Write a sequence for this structure.
């Protein structure tokens, strides 16, 4: 899938209309994403995210737009590096 828009650093909208929130610790991997970047959305069994977006630069953890991150878990993952 291609990127329809990337309106904020932590939000990406794909050409199928799906909206994804990028895990805060993975934002640096999205810096080179452009509209022509191909991304695959795959389910993921992760401590903080339900999906991964895989594209240039590797894999980023994500949750569907509109969902909320579990702050305690995010802090734990960021603290552990």
């Amino acid at each position: 899938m291609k990127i329809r828009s990337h309106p904020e650093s932590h939000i990406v909208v794909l050409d199928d209309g799906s909206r994804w929130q990028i895990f805060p610790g993975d934002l640096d991997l999205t810096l080179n994403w452009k509209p022509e970047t191909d991304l695959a959305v795959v389910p993921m069994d992760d401590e903080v995210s339900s999906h991964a977006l895989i594209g240039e630069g590797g894999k980023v953890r994500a949750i569907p737009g509109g969902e909320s991150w579990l702050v305690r878990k995010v802090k734990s993952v960021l603290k552990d590096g």
Q: What stands out?
A: Strands lie at 3-8, 11-14, 19-22, 40-43, 51-55, 58-64. Helices lie at 71-80.
